[in-house]
Amino acid sequence: MLSFRRIFLLIAAVTSAVSAKSSTGDSVLVVVEPSRQNDYSIFFNGLKEKGYELTFRAPKEEKPVIIQDDVPSFAHVILFASETKNFAKDITPQSLVELLSLKTNLIIALSTKQTPLSSLAAEFSIVLPPPGTPLVSYFPERSEPPSVIPIAPDSSSSILSKDIHPVWFSGVPMSLGNNPLLFPILRAPAESFAAEVDGGSADALVDSAEKGGEGLWAGSQLSVVTGFQALGGARVTWVGGVELFSDEYAKKEVSKSVESGNKKFASDIATWTFQETLVLRIDRTEHHLVNATSPKEHYTTGDEVEFAAYISKFNPKTGKWDPCACRKDIQLDFTMLDPHVRTALPPVPGAPGKYGTAFRVPDRHGVFKFVIDYKRKGWTHLHSSTTVPVVPPRHDGYPRFLSAAWPYYAGAISTSVAFLLFSALWLAGDVREMKKSKGKSE
Amino acid sequence: MAPKSSAPTQQTTAIQTLWKAYNEQTSDRLKFIDAFLFFLMLSGIVQFLYCILVTNFPFNAFLAGFSSTVGQFVLTASLRSQVNPENKNEFKEVSPERAFADFALGSIVLHFFVYNFLG
């Protein structure tokens, strides 16, 4: 019996070590030229070790299709065929956008050549330089050509792990439009610029720089690796050059006996893109009156209401959702068209994963909503909306007779009393007159 | 019942003449009604001033109190015109008793609504 349990535990341990730690699925489609497949073996083996099931496909192969019967066949898609001009007919910019709305994550590598993917980039408000103009930098002094650049990652990025060595990069820079869902993961160095060293024309570069303003194609406002998180939660990473993932760059030394950060960087990008890290969800929300436990069907204007949300974060190590008190800047809105109340929703001390606040319902009745709308770059967008009606107090829920209105009450009462007196006197007068007239006639 | 200038020789102002004529020519019943009307008018003015100068909150109480005086004034004024002997030709079919019954019924209905609206 004991040994049986041991075997069971062993099997469980083995399976849990094999299963991938993405919150959305293990299957990955890699679109890559078969001849170049082995150039990225370190990156692919890293993914396989984590437990992803990689399926390779040449760009012009028909199978396996990425979307079958409106259902995506893979949880994640890697497009490394950055120089391919003609893809199989199921890989189009439109189908890739559809994949995003079907919550499939994408890693897309670009190149200096004009391909269908370059036109897709424009849909994400990523502006690419004209064809044939990669990023070059003459600093720091090195033996490599100027278009092969070591870039030190930003250590404050929440996507990348700390202390990554500089990353070798060669490819196109991207200028980011003002799409709020777009954010740079790796910025170009300050001394770098786009130049027509790869067969591009200087005139085209000047033209496009004039369109975007002076300095469009130079400096650290350019991005070379860019993240994008769709409203549905799917994540896309745009990489300016596919060589960043290559074995050659992973093994290449940045300086003497310092290994480049490419391997770690590539793995971090994949970790984020495949929704292993920075993945949050709202498990449930609750609302009730202060000092009550069960929710009310409707609230009255002026009620003191407590709202709580339970938020958990995906833990890639265990594959489970753990309660997370990690966010300090969540806000709660109490809205009817406009937010009538907007308040912080801080983590409740002593209750992991619970975020709660209490507020007074505004003096306005109507159909209100408790809204959490949390969008932070890199983190899963959180959205929750709970509708509750707010009603005015019941007829016995507030004082009916106010001292300020006594003149009006006195007016109404005196009119009635005067009416009664008037009627009584009038009738009495009638009787008297009748007596009088009777006395006259007699 | 426009008062005729019965004494042109007296050196009095028009208002005094009017007041005198009213006192002399109006029956006691009509004077009684007029006193009631005067009271209602004062009450209405006081409430209206209170509303303007102090507060109109709660507004329903103001509406109830003010409209009770106005409504009562209208009903009483119609009673006055119907029981006035000089208007006998106008209201041939309405006896003074019938007029008072109409007045009383109308007033009771009015007060019913006023008290519903007051609180």
Automatic annotation (TrEMBL), chain A:
- Domain OST48 N-terminal, which positions? 28-273
What pathway is this protein a component of? Protein modification; protein glycosylation
Q: Which residues form the OST48 middle domain?
A: 287-428
Q: Which residues cross the membrane?
A: 406-428
Give the range the annotation lists for the signal sequence: 1-20
Tell me which UniProt keywords the record has, alphabetically.
Endoplasmic reticulum, Membrane, Signal, Transferase, Transmembrane, Transmembrane helix
Q: Which GO terms describe its molecular function?
A: transferase activity
Q: Which family does it belong to?
A: Belongs to the DDOST 48 kDa subunit family.
Quote the subunit structure annotation. Answer: Component of the oligosaccharyltransferase (OST) complex.
- Indicate what this protein is called per its UniProt record: Dolichyl-diphosphooligosaccharide--protein glycosyltransferase subunit WBP1
The organism of origin for this protein:
Crucibulum laeve
From TrEMBL, chain B:
The answer on whether this UniProt entry bears the keyword Transmembrane reads yes
GO BP annotation list: protein N-linked glycosylation
This entry's Gene Ontology molecular function terms read:
transferase activity
Q: Name one GO cellular component term.
A: oligosaccharyltransferase complex
Q: What is its main location?
A: endoplasmic reticulum
Q: Which domain of life is it from?
A: Eukaryota
Membrane topology term reads: Multi-pass membrane protein
Keywords associated with the record = Endoplasmic reticulum, Membrane, Transferase, Transmembrane, Transmembrane helix
* A Pfam family reported for this protein in Swiss-Prot or TrEMBL: DAD
Membrane spanning segments where?
A: 35-55, 99-118
Q: Where in the cell is it found?
A: Endoplasmic reticulum membrane
Matching entries from InterPro entries are given as: DAD/Ost2
The pathway entry for this protein reads as: Protein modification; protein glycosylation
Subunit notes for this chain? Component of the oligosaccharyltransferase (OST) complex.
What's the stated role of this polypeptide?
Answer: Subunit of the oligosaccharyl transferase (OST) complex that catalyzes the initial transfer of a defined glycan (Glc(3)Man(9)GlcNAc(2) in eukaryotes) from the lipid carrier dolichol-pyrophosphate to an asparagine residue within an Asn-X-Ser/Thr consensus motif in nascent polypeptide chains, the first step in protein N-glycosylation. N-glycosylation occurs cotranslationally and the complex associates with the Sec61 complex at the channel-forming translocon complex that mediates protein translocation across the endoplasmic reticulum (ER). All subunits are required for a maximal enzyme activity.
**Similarity section:** Belongs to the DAD/OST2 family.
Name of the protein in its database record: Dolichyl-diphosphooligosaccharide--protein glycosyltransferase subunit OST2
